[in-house]
Amino acid sequence: MQFKRLKILMIILFISLDTFLFVWWRSNRPDSVQVTDANTSIIAEMKHQDIQLSKFSTKIPYANYLAGKQSDTLISLSGKAADYDANVKNQKLSVNFKTPQSIKSSGSKNETSKYIANQIDPTTLAYSAGYQYNKILSYEQGAKQGIYSQKIDKLPVVSQQGLFVVNYNKDGKATGFTQTKISHITELRDERVTLSEEDAIVSLYRFNELNSGDKLSKGMLSYDSALKVNGYDIYTPVWLFVVTHSDGERDTLKINAFTGDNLSE
Hints:
Helix content: 25-40%
Radius of gyration: 22 Å
Shape: globular
Largest sheet: 7 strands, mixed
């Protein structure tokens, strides 16, 4: 009984401290007009340096801190295909086709192609399993992979824990795929305001991630995880971009959507 009261007290103290820190952070933020003016100046400077930007949003989204576990319940291929090898290790399904598969369609959301004898369309399989095509992650990989994200709290996952990844050979045929899945998803706190896409772009520039001649993709608000606590992965909202450098190389860039910290590797 004493332990239960102590636990409740600690929760109340934690919530109070969290609320105080959030109010303090908001009170110390620059005026929104000043932020907007500063962003406009920096965006103009970026364009002057020939940094190409896609059309970006100034809208302020909301997001959560989430927790989730790796799921053991993965796709069952029984009866859908014959010529493949499959194994599950560390909650990750890996499938290799003995004969590379041709995928004729681009994998639209309303795809209706059917399985044919001894063949399997991993694109269709990804959608039927609840994964959606991730244009930014796939763009970074070029023709080597098509990447599909699980959605949690209405946003796509970009960490390794919730992806369906189709691998292609040099002829553009699918050689297999991998799948991971997140379950037991829990909101840790109420939704809170995040940075806008414009704010995230400005942060990238301030962290020297963008240089003259670079081309930046459209940003995508997503969930990423780099922390595990008591068997749960902790998910934080991030702004995800792909930058194409003047030499053609591509890199993924990430900004913490709550703090503005640079998470790019």
